[in-house]
Amino acid sequence: MTTPNTYSAWPDARGRFGEYGGRFVAETLMPLTLELERAYEAAKEDPAFREEFDALLRDFVGRPSPLYFAERLTEKFGGAQLWFKRDELNHTGAHKINNCLGQVLLARRMGKKRIIAETGAGQHGVATATVAARFGLPCIVYMGKTDIERQKPNVFRMKLLGAEVRAVESGTATLKDAMNEALRDWVTNVDDTFYVIGTVAGPHPYPAMVRDFQSVIGKEARAQMQDRLGRLPDACVACIGGGSNAMGLFHPFLEDEDVRLIGVEAAGEGVDTNRHAASLNGGKPGILHGNRTYLLMDDDGQIADAHSISAGLDYPGIGPEHAFLKDAGRAEYVSATDQEALEMFQLCARQEGIIPALEPAHALARARDLCKELGPDGVVLMNMCGRGDKDVFSVADALGVEL
Amino acid sequence: MNRLQTRFAALAKEGRAGFIPYVMAGDPDLKTTAALLEKLPGAGADVIELGFPFTDPMADGPTIQSAAERSLQNGTKLDDVLGLVRDFRKADADTPVILMGYANPPYIRGFEKFAADMAAAGADGVILVDLPPEEDEELRAAFDRHDLSLIRLATPTTDDARLPRVVEGTKGFVYYVSVAGVTGAGRGERGAIETAVSRLKEASGLPVAVGFGVKTPETAAEIARSADAVVVGSAIVERLAKDGPEAALDLTRRLSQAVASARETEQS
User: Fold this and answer.
1) Which one of A184, A264, A376, B161 is at 20 to 30 Å from B199 when CA atoms are compared?
2) Averaged over A220-244, what is the pLDDT?
3) pLDDT by residue (tens digit) across B184-222?
4) B160: contact with A, CB 8 A cutoff
5) Are B45 and B21 in contact (CB under 8 A)?
6) Prediction pTM value
7) Does A1 touch chain B (CB under 8 A)?
């Protein structure tokens, strides 16, 4: 077996990124993940698949998303130029649809008749329901009961799109439990079902496949930067729950070693408390949901509850490629608290006329620090991976505003 | 011969299938599990499967999920589970005990330490649901060093291309999951199970135990005509939760008798 010798060449044949990743699933699912890998490898090499994907990204999703100079935030922060990759302008309001589109096209190619997904904030659920509706496929979305409570608008959107939303009450009733339930569905419906995982985690080939579908973000941004500024950014910044928007942004920059890659985890009430979702900064390597990666857990290997004001970051794990990039030192992983995210949410709305999702509001807190650190000659590229419409209720609640 | 080999050799000699009840350690508390373990062999358990809890049991149905939650709420640790085996072993030197659960708790303990601690406690083998052959090298090496059995699962989706990989390195017995689904779900069809059992026996040269979705003495007996052992989990765990230990033991007795006499019934 050869070992990839560049950052972007992973995973290896076993689906590993260094020691992370792999295929830690029940035997019932093993043949299915192998079949998926074969189908994905074949699709990747098929120009017709690529063509169909690109055309729908253009006409259905609205790509390429703009590269935007955040002029008034740049002024406010008083340092480097801050640029946003506007993935919140995509159809359905987040980066999630890039991946859903790719996976549903693959499902069709494989002859699968039924789509299932897990969702936290509801963005991935909405995006999956959207693409399933577009192709007339039945869609079931598993969502933790806690998340259903705090993301009501997205629940209704999924229903409007014809999806069935199944409430998950087991465990902590959040994203990880929704993922458990989706895996239980898949293990039961092995013949006709395609499981659309929403982030760069899960058993191989999901982390690599989701990354590939999301890397359209970084490819576009890299070309747009060259085009507009004639240079690459000094740093790329993105928030991290499972890590799909960050991986999509980072991957095309992995070999540009002068470009710093910075992932921002959710520190909740603080990484030094037990109420956060920062797996890389506050966890250790373990095995969950099909892969070996950094996880929040106790000393006995029981998975800990994650906490974040943002339902999309509220996950006790992280995609294995991020775990690898952290250990390799190629990317830096920092965090932002609930409080910081709330401040940035409001600041971005007022300064730029963009209401960000709470997820990228985390990234903005560290982008601010970077702008100051790099000074006026610097260029910071941040992925504005989602818009904040879905969050207005929880933000109002956190600010004590009655709607 | 280790305990598992001895037990399956004895069953073969008797010409009957074995019965393997599953209980979750620490459900509803450790004291109850300890008392149950002590009485299971008397109720007809030929091998005991002792579940250890995990927060995210993604291959389990609602019954085992709830059992794991109850156990964790009581603070059950992997040390406690090994302690249960150690105490059981003091009074029973012969009944094999298999641990069953998910990979992360043993991984965090360290596979070598896990194997050493299991051997010291007197446990015989393990089933780790989310550790397929592709990922179990390290555990397998540790288990070989301590003469413990790593029991793999074969399922209805395990095709011929994959089967050799699944049975290679498997020790003790092969566990056939009779239905694509979670624990406690609907059962597999009898003819399909018979075919699978003979295919697995041939490929592995090992005894084959069948589980998942086996709930009643009638079903257990049907499976016992072809399988070397029958595993019942959810039904016993559910009975324990609803009606207490005596009722769970009573169900175990009825199941084990149905399994033990299954081949006589067919012959007569």
Assistant:
1) A184
2) 98
3) 887 777 788 999 999 999 999 999 999 998 999 999 999
4) no
5) yes
6) 0.97
7) no
pLDDT at B268: 47
Residue A2 pLDDT exceeds 60 = no
For A176, the closest chain B residue by CA position comes to B56
CB-CB neighbours of A378 under 10 Å: 17
Distances (CA, A) of A27 to A52, B56, B183, B218: 33, 17, 13, 27
Degrees to nearest 5, angle at CA A366 with A362 and A369: 150
Contacts of B219 (CB under 8 A, 6+ apart): B187
Read off the pLDDT of residues A285-326 as tens digits, 9 standing for 90 and up: 999 999 999 999 999 999 999 999 998 898 999 999 999 999
User: Does B177 sit within 8 Å of A27, measured CB to CB?
Assistant: yes
pLDDT tens figures, A31-88: 999 999 999 999 999 999 999 999 999 999 999 999 999 999 999 999 999 999 999 9
Distance of residue B5 Cα from the nearest chain A Cα, in angstroms? 24
Rounded to two decimals, the ipTM of the complex is: 0.96
Nearest-by-Cβ selection for A301 from B69, B107, B155? B107
3-state SS string for chain A: CCCCCCHHHCCCCCCEECCEEEEECCHHHHHHHHHHHHHHHHHHCCHHHHHHHHHHHHHHHCCCCCEEECHHHHHHHCCCEEEEECHHHCHHHECHHHHHHHHHHHHHHCCCCEEEEEECCCHHHHHHHHHHHHCCCCEEEEEEHHHHHHCHHHHHHHHHCCCEEEEECCCCCCHHHHHHHHHHHHHHCCCCEEEECCCCCCCCCHHHHHHHHHCHHHHHHHHHHHHHHCCCCCEEEEEECCCHHHHHHHHHHCCCCCCEEEEEEEEECCCCCCCCCCHHHHCEEEEECEEEEEECECCCCCECCCCCCCHHHCCCCCCHHHHHHHHHCCEEEEEEEHHHHHHHHHHHHHHHCCCECHHHHHHHHHHHHHHHHHCCCCEEEEECCEEHHHHHHHHHHHCCCCC
State whether residue B234 sits within 8 Å of chain A by CB.
no
* Structural domains in chain B, sorted by start: 3-261 (3.20.20.70)
